[in-house]
Amino acid sequence: MGIKDEVGKIEYHYGFYGAVHAEYEPTHVKMEYLQEHELGEEPVRMDMLLLKLEDTPLTDPIGSFFRAHNVLEYKSPEDRLTVSAFYKAQGYALLYKGMEKTVDAIPLEQVTVTLFHDAYPRRMFRMLEERGMDIAEVHPGVYRVTGPLSVHTQVVVTSRLPKGEYSAFKALAKNASKDDIISLLGLADSNHPQMVDYVRAVLNVSIIINEKTIEEIKEAGIMPEAVRRVFQEEFKQERDEGRMEGRMEGREEERQVIFERMKAANIPEDQARAIAFG
Prior knowledge:
42% helix; 10 helices
């Protein structure tokens, strides 16, 4: 189970979209989430544009930095956060501001950039400091960059975020902790109507890159019920619409596919059988 593209590459960004929603929709602060927001007519896209539609402040260490227009750029564990990526994000923000329909409709002081990566970008920070910028850790894992910059910028190193915080972001990292993945699964209990979908998006990635940890959670007896809760709507929809793998016909064949998929997710055979055929 997991999200991969046609050539088998993990689609990390779909998990990241789910993580952003999972972390910030429960705040009830009105915001608009625009994935792969296009900049102009050319195929230049930022990872996410987060529009804060009201003045109510976010109080968490990352969100408190957000203003009205927020460019979010995510580097997967398979990528590096380089100084080029840093300036590319700056360019996205400036191009977004420059594409405004009327003069200064988007005040530059209301634009921010936040870069996410699981590894500490030591070389990037050193190069930025050599260029006259200051790097200040305002919260474990959250770094504000000041100096000769046009756009307010912060860098989030998810592996350094404190225990018990931002589980959705941290579950996207390789070697995510059991506590973070279990906390992520716990978000599915939220009363938010779409939280299960967001958790599913993150978990689809985390299952692929954290097989050992997922196995440990399974052995602890935590994973099966959590997976059933998070994925039960997906299984139901696929049964109802007849879109099960191979487009099999007949209820028994569909149940068998569900059974095989849950086994692939490391659910013990007896429990997978009870879920699929029970």
